[in-house]
Predict the structure.
Amino acid sequence: MAKDQILIRDVPEHVREWIDEKRHRLRLSLKELLISLLEQAARGEIRPSLFDALERPAQPVVGSLIPFRFIDLFAGIGGFRIGLTKLGGRCVFTSEWDKNAQRTYQAWYGDGEIHGDINAIDPKDIPPHDILAAGFPCQPFSIAGVSKKNSLGQAHGFQCERQGNLFFRICDIAKVKRPPVLFLENVKNLRSHDGGKTWLVIKTELESLNYRVFDQTIDAIHWVPQHRERIFIVCFDRTVFGDEPPFSFPEPPAGGRRLRDILESDPPAKYTLTDHLWGYLQRYAEKHKAKGNGFGFGLVGPDDTARTLSARYYKDGSEILIRQEGKNPRRLTPREAARLMGYDDESARLFGHTDGFPIVVSDTQAYRQFGNAVVPHVVQAVGAKILDVFRWHLEQTGTGCLIYGRDTGRRAKKQAKNDQLLLQV
């Protein structure tokens, strides 16, 4: 055998499986992985025993484990982070520009650097990943956001320079990193904005990147006691999954939850509306009712479901007011708002919080954050269907790899025998 080759015989099956999993996850060839590990060992950066610490999720996961890596763009307070972590995913990169949201995200998940302005990020610096997750800014496209911008004489949609064009940063990253899956979320009005032109631009752009695009509007009412319709967009790289991956959006679960499931038993008195504010809201509702408009407050009880929680809830709480016997109604507390959005105590425990996710910002900021958030339960449900396609792909190729097509996978299997490793150096 040549001096620049190393042949290792009788490699244990579990070691071979670990090597295959590791190299596919890191997007490395067998040669690149083994040389990297040996160089690290030679420098004393790792112990010679390379297989002591397999990379596994720190939190319990739901269903069959398929290790995958994802990035969390426009992360907010981590709705994608929770939902995908529960499925076995590992977040390898986070971007969120809002300082208060960064503070919450860091307190809840406590891991590495949170990158700020996505426009300042070089896509080449983003680690390899299997799923690009992003709830890109919704205000330029939402009904409330468009109405507000119109009233202020401001541009909306893609004409909103500060937020509207951020979708194209996702496309820039996809061009460079080629993640097998894009998993996006936005307001349902995205489809109808500007007479459908906005959605046409988005779908056309994604398809031009050679992704197969699936989209559906899903109401979170089936998972949380709140009507919250959002569009979910799932895109599969055609070079990996072909033209017709067997993807379908989830069926909503049976039953449903009510507000009693999320309400506190003894909320602080400060959340009860003053006589002045309650009187104003009633007069405002009557005024618009007389004009035939639908504007007004939403008064609900424990057995009801709520309207959509918006980012403006901090102003007066009028969209969701809780009835109180013998008293004025009250706002939701921030803890209740968290639970209403699916940031519940069970999810908090997965990240080491024994008493729910801590509220580390002001009430105003907390309401804004929850009103802008994505419901983790819906992310998890859609994510589980994405993993079904991953399983299908792995069965079809037999490579255990998401980034190689069928032909590449067959060559890889043919090249490597099960019981030996040949490293040419």
